[in-house]
Amino acid sequence: MTTDASGTLRRTALHGAHLALGARMVPFGGFEMPVQYSSILKEHDAVRKRAGLFDLSHMGQFTLTGENVGAWAESLTVNKVANMKPGQARYNIFTNERGGAHDDVIFYRLDENRWLLVVNASNADKMWNVVRAAPADGVEMANLHGERALIAIQGPRSVEWLQPYVEAELAPLKYYACAETRVKGVRDAVVIARTGYTGEDGFELFMPSGVATGIWDLLLAENRERGLEPCGLGARDVLRLEAGMPLYGHEMTEEITPLQAGMAWAIKFDKPAFTGKDALVAQRDAGAYPRIVGLTMDGRVPARAGYPVFANGARTGEIRSGSFGPTVGVNVATALVDPAAAADGTVLEVEVRGARHAARVVPLPFYKRPKG
Amino acid sequence: MANGVPAGLLYSKEHEWVKLDGDVATVGITDYAQSSLGDIVYVELPRAGATLTQFGSIGVIESVKAVSDIFTPVGGEVSEVNGGLEADPAAVNRDPYGEGWFYKVKLNDVSQTNELLTPEQYEHLIAGA
Questions:
Q1: Distant-in-sequence, close-in-space partners of A222: CB < 8 Å, separation ≥ 6
Q2: For chain B, give me the number of helices (H) and strands (E)?
Q3: Measured between alpha carbons, how far is B112 from B10 in angstroms, rounded to an integer?
Q4: ipTM for the complex?
Q5: For the CA atoms of chain B, what is the radius of gyration?
Q6: Beta strands B40-44 and B24-29, pairing class
Q7: A325 touches B at CB < 8 Å
Q8: pLDDT per residue over A236-245, tens digit each?
Q9: Taking the model in full, what pTM does it have?
């Protein structure tokens, strides 16, 4: 990892590998990251049909150790944490006093007293400040951002193409389960989880940065010919959008609450107290809050973040994310709209360069992977 | 022909090519441009009959991630537009000098093409990029 005093971009351990593969690099979350290697559409297609390999080492990784982690985390987040079993991962959201989101995260409980917390790259510094601002007995925290790497393999062939290289039995590993295992030829233990951000089956591997290139090269060596593609952040964003997954800063922010973002399932109101609970209860009870909806455009013009949205000629909200969706074959978007415009089937208009284009509200996700 | 610059065309600094046939110019974007933009998903072009001013912003080309302005390398009246790009924007990536053409313009003043680059000058431009 390199940083320097002038604040130029950091690099992951896989930087050289990306350049060797011909990646186009862009700044993201303070890091130089691959946005694409060949083409976004080709990489997207590889993940949906076969599998893709992603470097996600720019994301923040914290370790949490102690007997009080569960209760401590529950006081700062919307979901339950203490009842997670060793070997379980869970999605959660850290909130502010107004019920807005500091970040959406995943907790991984490795054993009784050892946890891994993964946060968005763009929020790594903020989240380290958030967790450190709430010290507690029985909770030790370490920020491993930059010391640990994260490689994800995502796609229907993930089990088949990863299994030869890891000790853990992958087929029986449940969705959102995690384990510590070893990669063939690598001495250090790695954490593996059946989690991801694409809507496909797949695994995330967490490892010390020093072994990342060895593991990346190992996974690509034989699998590249079989059809495993290195995939960048460009494809990642289209995959997650089609799968209806929120991107922090778009569908959830310090202002847009988890309730507004459609994450009510993750909010456990029966917890006695957590940051922002009162605000979320009030929002839920009042009911009439602007919310995130899925939109498909009727025509070929894509909607993009920031474009205004209209219902019956009156301004009702704005696009939060938008792209052509190759799997579904239409332009898809999320929008934050007034409740009156939020029902499935509602016809709305998106203003694109001064002209209004028809769109309709559809349920999320736009794409669900086939069962089996 | 990766980034190869065809002879017989003129070029703009905004990475468009112009094919002159008397006072009618066909316009498109270069291989360098389509490669930089990535997968094209939508092209918004002027209508036939529209009057364009040389180097004015006259449309957009959208890739998966981004929207880019199209600056017309020539001015005059639009005589024809490539309607095939509506259903097949990927033609711009596949065949930027052929199937991926954008529109034709009847030039209001042929001498304006003096403002454009020769193949050698364009090749020099992208080599330095």
A1: none
A2: 4, 9
A3: 12
A4: 0.91
A5: 13
A6: unpaired
A7: no
A8: 999 999 999 9
A9: 0.95
